[in-house]
Specification:
This protein is α+β, with helices and mostly antiparallel strands and about 375 residues long. It contains twelve helices and 14 strands. About 35% of the residues lie in helices and about 20% in strands. The termini are far apart.
Length: about 375
Amino acid sequence: MEDQRTEFAQAAMSCRNFSALCREYGITRRTGLKWKARYEAQETMSDRSRRPKHSPTRTPEDVEQQIVALRSDNPGWGAKTLRKKLENDGVHGLPSVKTVNNILHRYGCISVEESRKRQAFTRFEKDACNDMWQTDFKGEFRMEDGNYCYPLTILDDHARFSLAIVPRSGTKNVVIPAFLEVFRQYGLPKSILSDNGAQFAGFKRGYTQFERLLMELDILPIHGRMKHPQTQGKIERFHRTMNQELLKHVTMHDIDDACEQFRLWRQKYNNVRPHEALGMKTPAEVYIPSDRQLPEKIAPWEYGGEYHVIKVNSWGYVRFDKWQIYLSQTMIDQYIEFRPNPDGESFSACFRNFRIAEFKTENGELIHRNIARL
């Protein structure tokens, strides 16, 4: 196109019939005069921007720079979060969320891949703080000293409040001490949702010490379905946020450095970062600690006396009726109540105020080990 315009302008310099030349090139006399004038002035023959020189509604340059700078410091924050944080900081002249998003695109802050990742996904939510906590180990990563870090995370389901991030060099003997510390600080929840990892859930051979501790504290252990991470959608989303805002941008030297980096990021996540699912409030503005405190000593449980109560032997078995039933080595020396079910075809094993297993009446065969509150 530029070559054709140049060719036209050169022909126009010596042309006797300017109108005929314009018709030959399929342009008006006005357009022809414009390209001839530009050629004589040695100006570019390409199209010029139609953008107005002045735009009264354009976001002020200093506000745009504050948006971009805040995004640079927090690469995982979206337009809503950025706008709310700047509003909280008293910045005036802020544009709409859509305009903030356009500014991020214009400055190359958002990739197509990241936009696709942020498709809306509906998740269930508990009605109040401490109705349920979610927990999981974030996938391990290697630190500068060559060792791996395994962060244990605990999140309140309702407030999205990060109750703890506990980085350790392994997953063994981490869960119970970490939770006891959180219980002392924030009180006891009604239930805790985890996956079926060996640190949280007993499989075919019984129950974990963690499950037993929770039941002794009147906390319901809940486990997501096998190979169904959507059950723990909030903590999965929390881990993704941790990746986007921290792990992609910070290299941790060792466990001590990891503890400090996670402490700083957790403080920002809870107290500074507005959360879209919370109406742009921060988790700390929503979360209320539990009024159920961790007892100094777990009190013994008194069963009602209506059903058989049997002590688990030192191998994890109980003898009920004519059946020798394996329950769990975790329950050694604990007392279990056996209740017949209304259908007459099965009976339940109960630990304190939880039903922990169900067996067939005809042969004592295990039906399931699902834990439920009575």
